[in-house]
Amino acid sequence: SYEQMKNLTDRIRKAAEDLGVKRIIFGECGHAWRVAYSFLNTLSGPFDFLDPRYPVPQHICEFTWDLIQKGELKFDKSANDHMTLTFHDSCNVARASRMGDTPGGQFEIPRAIIKAVCNNFVDMPADTIREATFCCGGGGGLLTDDLMEIRTKGASPRMTALQETVKDHGVTHMAAICAICKTQFAKIMPTYGLGMDRIVSLHQLVSNAIILDGQDGEDTDDDAGAEATESAAAG
Fold this sequence. Notes:
Layout: H1 2-19, E1 25-26, H2 30-44, E2 58-59, H3 60-69, E3 85-87, H4 91-96, H5 105-117, H6 148-154, H7 156-169, E4 173-176, H8 179-188, E5 199-201, H9 202-209, H10 221-234
Parallel strand pairs: 1-2, 3-4, 4-5
């Protein structure tokens, strides 16, 4: 109901005010992003206490891509070389929202992130992705084991496109940014001859490849300070 939606978004607003945050970022959830993108400002705005430099709301992919473009993240793309990736456009993101400043950003930004952290990426057939994407088969309240037959049939178009890409291009894994899609595919993939671990999160790929301070052989400030202390103690 409207009242329930407003209650939930008001809680988000209050938490943001109490914590004094500069922006509100939504994670890899198709339903959450669709609702936030379409209704957050209408239900609980204006969010004029947030930093005006950032969109309200902001998707985690927008946040990550902004950092990548600024050169603030370092990656070892070879950390994902054991995978050849493709990407599933989730319905709620593809058809009911947007990312970034230009039309189609919800298609381009996730793929740009994948290409920034992976060496091997192949799209599925053009008539099965982006605006023409297929449903995972588990949305709309179907994500229950009592409806496995329906879920399996609903996943057939996407699984057929994925199997074709596996056969033609050696794709090993499919990334997605919707929790329901990922849960659905993990359950359905074995039915279509693919392991349940063949579905991965986009930011799982980011996590694999990211180089944190101290991981690339360079001394961090803390390391340098510790070495100086040890040298002084030894002297």
